[in-house]
Structure formats: structure tokens, C-alpha cells
Amino acid sequence: MSLNFAHSGHPFNARGGLRAWYDFENPAYGDTRIVFGHWSALGLLVLPNLVSLDTGCAWGRQLTAVRLDRRIAEVYQVQGQD
User: Fold this and answer.
1) CB 43 within 8 A of CB 12
2) Are 43 and 54 in contact (CB under 8 A)?
3) Per the CB 3.0–4.6 Å rule, which of 15, 23, 30, 37 could disulfide with 53?
């Protein structure tokens, strides 16, 4: 198994059995909350131990911040500017 860097869109649009990296079980993560960005096609995704933070502000969409000092992440957004 290897990473496929050719697909940069939303995982729902992936072909050929591709899955997002976070859909694979990885015991190394444990109970650690993973926060990542640089995937604006995915957008905001908040799961118990995973937060996708890139909501496309550079493309005129929202700027997103997440408060992480709570058990459930609190999301704050403001509209981006063109």
C-alpha cells in the first residue's frame, strides 16, 4: 500500500478504492487529537480525535479557528475576503 498524491479533491470523489489517510486505523494515534489543514477541498471536518481545519479562506471561503482546550472542539468561522 502506498500514498497517492495525484488526487487532491474530496475523498467522496476518489476513484479506484482510494481512501483518505485518516480512514486507516492507526494505533499510533491513540487518543491524540490530530489537527491538520492544507486540504481545502475536504473543508471542515470535526471528529472526536480529528479536525480538518482548511476551509478555503485563500479562495474566498471561511477562515476557521478551533478551540482545542475543550473535550469537544469549538469551531469559530469568519467569512474570507476576495
Assistant:
1) no
2) yes
3) 37
Closest CA to 53 of 77, 23, 80, 22: 77
CA angle 5, 10, 16 (to 5 degrees): 60
Q: pLDDT digit string (tens) for 19-66? A: 888 888 877 888 888 999 999 989 999 988 899 999 999 999 999 999
Copy the grid coordinates of residue 51.
Answer: 479536525
Cell numbers 473535550 label which residue?
Answer: 71
User: Can you tell me the distance from the alpha carbon of 28 to that of 24, in angstroms, rounded to the nearest whole number?
Assistant: 11
Residue with cell 494505533: 27
Nearest CA among 34, 70, 37 for reference residue 50: 34
Quickly count: other Cβ atoms within 10 Å of residue 55's Cβ: 20
Residue from 61, 41, 60 nearest 52 by CA: 41
